[in-house]
Amino acid sequence: MNGVEAMEGMSGRNARLIVKTGISRSGDPQITIRDFGPGIATDHIEKIFESFYTTKVRGMGMGLAINRTIIRDHNGTISVSNHPEGGAEFVVTLPKADNHVEDAWSSGGSRSDS
Q1: pTM given for the model
Q2: Can you tell me the distance from the alpha carbon of 47 to that of 63, in angstroms, rounded to the nearest whole number?
Q3: How would you classify the pairing of strands 17-23 and 29-35?
Q4: Nearest to 88 by CA among 40, 49, 30, 47
């Protein structure tokens, strides 16, 4: 939502949100989300993941704080920067699943999506 809201008022091809998946340098799954809005003010970058910090008139300042907590609870990382060509870019990296999880499923363990 933040990326979409950052581009409000933009039209046509200028209003783009790109979501990419890939593998980090360490071999872990990675998700990159980039918008083409105005970017994030330098003095906000350091505070953006803090609870109750917001730049929105109607914002609560909880969304990114909750995201960070969930990602950290799964031993992952989230970072933000301004892209050199404009807009903000968030990168989420999560550790690869342990082999024992797959072994449990293949040995008759149950999966919630089966």
Answers
A1: 0.70
A2: 13
A3: antiparallel
A4: 40
Q: Provide φ and ψ at 43, rounded to 5°.
A: -75, -10
Give every CB contact of residue 10 below 8 A, 6+ residues apart in sequence: 36, 37
- CA–centroid distance for 17 within its chain: 12
| Rg, Å, the chain Cα set | 17
Domain spans of the chain? 2-106
Helix (H) or strand (E) holding 88: strand 88-93
User: Is the confidence at residue 89, as pLDDT, over 50?
Assistant: yes
CATH value of 2-106 in 3.40.309.10, 3.40.605.10, 2.40.30.40, 3.30.565.10: 3.30.565.10
Would you give the DSSP letter of residue 95?
A: P
The one-letter code for the residue type at 76 is G
